[in-house]
């Protein structure tokens, strides 16, 4: 183990990258704000029991992927493997069900931990943006959430993802369907992959979206949940389709989509991007009408989605979307020997005027300070000191034009503000 190497499956967001994250996060905030959602933040770890009860102890996530450990008090805790359970727990703990419903919440760059095999787009710590709505039973809510996720992606410059929807019914109609599915699968068991054989008893629905081609080949004639929905679930699915159409969402129905977590009912959906290394799910979610009750709360419907930030950035890269990078500083003050205090006062004034600015803290040569300012991408550099300062003036250099002019110290801030405003106006 090398201590200067991050743990397998984790990634740093370095200063050169964080602007892109903030950009995606800002798009999420703006979109959610417009739609009446407010932010919620929950702890990084929860009691393990919470995930057993919500995500489900037969799921891949709970069986294989959780970071679970005993804390020093001997309690079993788990780093969150998804965003919904913690929000549902917080909602119940604060008795938000007694307040105005539906309660519409979003979360941003929530760290999610899964012990998965690291590969492209698959990490052991990743981050999700998402929403949770509690207390809205109608399909218009599902459509609003799907539209919102698309709006976030579109604001991030991403379009053309494949939107697939399905219904996995409610526990009533699903139980009957699962029997049919098991009957269909039973004679084929020996031809399925090991994971699917394992899923047969505990989670047969999950076999439907197995990525192994030989399993997919066996499933061609598998019975569909859609053909086995009860009346209410079928009506909900019809309403979902017409609501999506009303909101201008292009979608296709894919009866093979199921979700990896137990709490889903009725609507499930996915946004998929085709990449060189195969399909990549950027966002997934659905309805979970049983979850709140399952956690000991009242019977209250829920809907939500999770969107992987790392995957949004991957798709942006693939599509050549590069949000404009702002310079680290708009003005760099290069102080000559003896003028450091004067430069610091000017720096304070610049920042008070809202102008991103910086100066040297290592008494470097003027040449080295120029070079540093250039690397920061600063469009302006002001030399503080020497004869100019003695005259109450500064030398201001336009770094792109390599042009210099002398300006009075008293005029410094207004001149800079004017130049920056002109630059912005010209879109430079
Ligand atoms: P997948 O089918 O790719 O394993 P999932 O069904 O496990 O996805 P969800 O639990 O729905 O995914 O999580 C929501 C979103 O979080 C996914 O659509 C994806 O964008 C992202 N995501 C899930 N697991 C990872 C991971 N290990 N690394 C990076 N992003 C992930
Ligand atoms: Mg997964």
Write a structural description:
This protein is α+β, with helices and mostly antiparallel strands. It is 39% helix and 22% strand. The chain is built from 15 helices and 16 strands. The strands form three sheets. The chain has an eight-stranded mixed beta sheet, sandwiched between helices. A five-stranded mixed beta sheet has the order 13-12-14-15-16, sandwiched between helices. A hairpin with a 5-residue loop joins strand 3 and strand 4. Helix 1 (15-34) runs antiparallel to helix 5 and helix 5 (139-155) packs parallel to helix 9 (231-246). The longest helix has 20 residues, at 15-34. The chain is elongated, with a radius of gyration of 28 Å. The mean pLDDT is 95. It binds adenosine-5'-triphosphate and magnesium ion (MG). The site of adenosine-5'-triphosphate has 18 residues, from strand 6, strand 10, strand 11 and helix 11.
């Amino acid at each position: 183990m090398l201590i200067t190497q991050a743990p397998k499956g984790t990634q740093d967001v370095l200063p050169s990258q964080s602007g892109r994250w903030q950009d995606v996060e800002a798009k999420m905030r703006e979109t959610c704000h417009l739609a009446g959602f407010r932010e919620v933040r929950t702890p990084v770890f929860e009691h393990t029991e919470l995930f057993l009860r919500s995500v489900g102890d037969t799921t891949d996530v709970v069986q294989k992927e959780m970071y679970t450990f005993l804390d020093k008090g001997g309690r079993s805790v788990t780093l969150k493997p998804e965003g919904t359970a913690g929000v549902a727990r917080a909602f119940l703990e604060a008795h938000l069900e007694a307040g105005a419903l539906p309660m519409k919440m979003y979360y941003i760059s929530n760290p999610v931990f899964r012990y998965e095999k690291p590969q492209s787009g698959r990490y052991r710590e990743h981050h999700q943006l998402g929403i949770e709505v509690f207390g809205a039973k109608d399909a218009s809510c599902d459509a609003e959430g799907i539209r919102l996720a698309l709006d976030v992606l579109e604001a991030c410059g991403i379009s053309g993802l494949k939107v697939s929807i399905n219904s996995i019914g409610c526990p009533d109609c699903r139980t009957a369907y699962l029997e049919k599915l098991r009957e269909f699968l039973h004679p084929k068991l020996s031809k399925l992959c090991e994971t699917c054989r394992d899923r047969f008893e505990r989670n047969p629905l999950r076999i439907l979206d197995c990525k192994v081609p030989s399993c997919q080949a066996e499933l061609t004639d598998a019975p569909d949940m859609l053909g086995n929905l009860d009346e209410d679930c079928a009506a909900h699915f019809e309403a979902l389709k017409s609501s999506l159409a009303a909101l201008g969402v292009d979608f296709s129905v894919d009866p093979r989509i199921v979700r990896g977590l137990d709490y889903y009912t009725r609507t499930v959906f996915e946004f998929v991007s085709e990449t060189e290394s195969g399909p990549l799910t950027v966002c997934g979610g659905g309805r979970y009408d049983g979850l709140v009750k399952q956690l000991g709360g009242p019977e209250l419907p829920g809907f939500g989605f999770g969107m992987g930030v790392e995957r949004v950035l991957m798709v942006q890269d693939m599509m050549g979307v590069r949000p404009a990078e702002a310079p680290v500083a708009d003005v760099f003050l290069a102080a000559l020997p003896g003028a450091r205090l004067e430069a610091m006062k000017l720096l304070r004034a610049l920042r008070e005027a809202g102008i991103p600015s910086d100066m040297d803290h290592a008494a470097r040569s003027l040449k080295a300070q120029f070079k540093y300012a250039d690397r920061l991408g600063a469009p302006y550099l002001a030399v503080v000191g020497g004869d100019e300062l003695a005259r109450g003036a500064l030398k201001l250099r336009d770094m792109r034009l390599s042009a210099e002019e002398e300006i009075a110290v008293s005029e410094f801030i207004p001149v800079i503000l004017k130049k920056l405003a002109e630059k912005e106006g010209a879109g430079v």
